[in-house]
Design brief:
- The protein is built from 23 helices and 19 strands.
- It is rod-shaped, with a radius of gyration of 56 Å.
- The strands form 6 sheets. It has an 8-stranded mixed β-sheet, with helices on both faces.
- α17 packs antiparallel against α18 (614-637).
- It folds into 5 domains: 22-167 and 296-350, Response regulator (Rossmann fold, 3-Layer(aba) Sandwich); 172-206 and 217-230, no CATH class; 235-289, no CATH class; 358-405, no CATH class; 416-681, Up-down Bundle (Rhopdopsin 7-helix transmembrane proteins), CATH 1.20.1070.10.
- The protein is an alpha/beta fold and 744 residues long.
- Keywords: Cell membrane, Disulfide bond, G-protein coupled receptor, Glycoprotein, Membrane, Receptor, Signal, Transducer, Transmembrane, Transmembrane helix.
- The chain crosses the membrane at residues 417-443, 455-475, 487-508, 581-602, 614-636, 656-678.
- Its main location: membrane.
Amino acid sequence: MFFIPQISYASTAPELSDDRRYDFFSRVVPPDSFQAQAMVDIIQALGWSYVSTIASEGSYGEKGVEAFTQLSKEAGGICMAQSLKIPHNPKLEDFDKAIQQLLETPHSRAVIIFASEEDIRGVLNATKRANQVGHFLWIGSDSWGSKGNPILQLEDVAVGAVTILPKRSSIEGFDEYFTGLTLENNRRNVWFAEFWEENFDCRLLSASKREDTSRKCTGKERIGADSKYEQEGKVQFVIDAVYAMAHALHNMHRDLCPDHPGICPQMDTAEGKVLLKYIRNTSFNGSAGTSVMFNKNGDAPGRYDLYQFQMTNSSTPEYKIVGQWVENLQLRLEELQWPDGEQEVPISVCSLPCKTGERKKRVKGMPCCWHCELCDGYQYQYDETSCRLCVYNMRPNPNRTACQPIPIVKLEWHSPWAIIPVFLAMLGIIATIFVMATFVRYNDTPIVRASGRELSYVLLTGIFLCYIITFLMIAKPDVAVCAFRRIFLGLGMCISYAALLTKTNRIYRIFEQGKQTVTAPRFISPTSQIAITSSLICVQLLGVLMWFAVDPPNTIIDYDEQKTINPKLARGVLKCDITDLQIICSLGYSILLMVTCTIYAIKTRDVPEDFNEAKPIGFTMYTTCIVWLAFIPIFFGTAQSAEKLYIQTTTLTISMNLSASVALGMLYMPKVYIIIFHPEMNVQKRKRSFKAVVTAATMSSRLAQKPNERPNGEAKTELCENPAADPMSQATKKTYVSYNNLRI
């Protein structure tokens, strides 16, 4: 004997809303959690991450959206743009307001709808009024399913909608039973009279609550014949709910009242929890032939058919099954159609995927929303949310997904920065070799001998080395090249200015001592001059040896020199391990010799008639000082330039080339010109003793002074000496006009 709860036939009426489902079969129908899970799976399968929800106010809509929101959070990767609620008895303004709110987040095209048929229709109408047909991508719950009423005359708005409907089967025999019900044979159902009035649009009694019609019911109407009839989709669940209760009571009676024909005291006093336990443990084949069972939460398995409202070949929209959900999603993506004829699945995302080399900067509180930021500078994309800096010798690749080595460069021979100094150096070397060859060829001629052959050859060697350093500065750096750079960088200038300093110092000492005595100064012989010059050069070589000992020569790759803001232009510079300060220190001694030589050149500027090259040496040193004064600001002013390697190397080599060229041109080119083109001037003149030469030069200097600048009585004494009376006096004056023929 079973207790079977009375079932209202009104529960099977098509007009019954989902909010009025009865508890006795609510667990047999798949619950909102399964429906929400199916929707979450659909959203993920379509690649949507930014969605909105619309719910009808009430338990069905609100609980459905609540379940969807909770499951989407657990699944991750889905964010809510809008969560809207349609109130009871909504007005047109409520639907229009909802659509305007949805349009505030235009990237959220997917809209989840848990709403009644009337509310679904209101939302679609509002969409059409807002001229947004085809914008929204609808995902409808089972209240939409495959029904035609919500989309009647709104088919263009609903095209592309994906809807869910529990799997159901038509129960054989139920249609015959239900269409045979009349007011006479179904008096036990207290709601049947109300259903009769609604179904046939008539009034049974004068006391009827229906006021929208005056037509009276005759009682002879027949369901299906005088009205539209379609078996409601939840009939099978109602039947299964009754059977579930019957099986549970049967099992409960068997266990608690095994030998009792009716309800025993144990069963009569049993709590509801005991009955619930039996219901959850029930398992049987349902009315549709499918298994009926309950999970740990008391819910029946979720089984859904997935529909999409599509345009057919006849241009008539209709629902088409595109998949199913039975504990997991089976969706045929290739069969889906979308509004406006889109071939690809439309997007509904808060933010578009970042491009390669960009990182995601999340929006606080919205894990699906982000701003794309380029990994700039020397950063590369480490992962989708972070950038990392490449190591010092690397730069990001073109798409900024990894780092790649920075290219290595050096000053190339074909570079314009190298062509100019190399050209000047080659001209200088040719000129130096020509001068040296001329001096060797005419080694015993008066002009060559008067120039001081030994120091001249030393000076020409220094000039030659000044030109040679250009090639070492441009050559590809290696240990040998770097070692030669250290040696010859300052050696050529040191040799040149050591020789010039020795010459000017010799002239200065001769004439300074000649003012006091006619005795020749010490260390003015060629051997002494070479010894003095060599000692000055040895100081430079000693400094270079100490440099080798403290810091052996080596090559380095400088990644900071050409590390530009744009990493594409970054270069590593292969160069010798020589700093700017070390270059200046290496040249510092030569510059000291140059300054000292200039001072002596100034002191000997009044030596008469270019005595022994004093004035050409002076002009040489003045010009050289100007060259190096211009070099220093250019050299250090470009220390931060990306072209530092080229500018500094070119500036240094051109400065050395100019210094050598000035000395070569002013000191030797006039002599070579005379030797080659005016050999008649390159003749031996009468030799004078050192005493006669110094006396004549001293007297000439005094005569060159103004009378009022001379000591008292000096003018008179000089005037009393009649040059005409002394033939030697005239000869003396005539002889020292050119002292190039005198070797002092």
